[in-house]
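anyone seen this seq b4? input:
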Amino acid sequence: MGTRVFRRLTRILHYSVTPSPKLDAKRFIEQMSGAVTDRPALRDALDYARSGDTVIVWKLDRLARSMKQLIETVEKLRVRSIGFRSLTEAIDTTTAQGVLVFHLFSALAEFERALIRERTRAGLAAAKRMGRTGGRPAKLLNDDLDIARTLLANPDITVAEVADRLGVSPATLYRYLPAARSANSSP
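predicted toks r here
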């Protein structure tokens, strides 16, 4: 490799910044999921990197979750004259070939995401044609709402008591019957 990025290759390295004059690397280990957009170790690694450095990741998905985010991050690094390497995909943007490979991988990944989106939409449309609907089942049915309205008409019964009787929280009852606030509060 030419730089001492790890002492053991078996250890998973999330982020590493290799300053060009030195052979040592500063490591940033991320504890958060890659799905989280604000990741402190990534932010620290990107802030720490200086012109001429190389940011090294084990896999592309450690740097970004979406293609847009990945391309934006690598472009921000390029503007600051910071290289980027992904060890698993053997991408090194400090070379012309590495930039080409990065853009090819990016295009293929974007294509794959578009195919997944198309398949998902087609599956949802097919399910809808078959009468299936997605989402969470309703907590309160029309019969439950009729009971709630009847009970709330009595000023001696509180919204909390009605909600408890129906097995839902008062917030859920208010969501279904916004008028319950005013109807129950007037003497």
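The two ends are 79 Å apart (CA to CA). The longest strand covers residues 15-18. kinda curious what u guys think
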